[in-house]
Amino acid sequence: MSRAGEGLRAYRLIAGMWIRSAMTYRASFVVTVLGNLLVTGLDFVAILLMFSQVDSLGGWSLPEVAFLYGLSATAFGIADLTFGSMDVLGGRMRDGSFDTLLVRPVPVLAQVAADHFAVRRLGRITQGALVLGWGLPAVDVDWTVAKVLLVPVMLVCGGVIFCAVFVAGAAFQFLAQDAAEVQNAFTYGGTTLLQYPPTVFGKDFVRGVTFVLPLAFVNWVPASYVLERPYPLGLPPWAAFASPLVAVVCCALAGLAWRAGLRSYRSTGS
Hints:
270 residues; mainly alpha; 12 helices; globular
């Protein structure tokens, strides 16, 4: 617990340093946040263009797809804000600057995660939250206490699952060192995937996203329960509430992968 406390404190101090740096130029900060908001919003514009030609997508209406989109974009935005800098690890190992992190008396993971903390990524969270705010009242759902509580659970657990994927991807870079794009395929690619209904994909692909890399528990599985939509794989009803367990398992596996990768690191030799 003390080690975790040290990591959180180090993360807060490093992130605070980058926030103060970004806020030095307020106008530039506002412009970059707005630019990030507009650029990420183009994803939903593409969905709107699709629905200008069709009434449903894989049997899902526009408000239902907006619900999926908002959950995925907001959860990923939280992870991208907190752990999005993990993809620079390969570059640090190649230029030797990663070695400087190893000699500091704070957890390496906290240093890498907070490195170049980018407040502009708030634009992605804002954009996803706006779409979710529109989709929630627009969907035709008989809201119960369980369904209402499941929405914030999806956001928190989805963010944790994406954070675990960021850490696991960084751990893979200890082996490949130049694999940032491979990591991005599962993080940025994963959130784009989850913005569309599972019914538009083949069942074998859905099985992989559910049981191998369980991104489906970010929104597909619990959202199907909320919207009273049958999940393509016919999972039991309790699976909709399994996101916290999946998040814990993903974090544990990502932690093991990170420690294994860190132990295998042998420096640049320079």
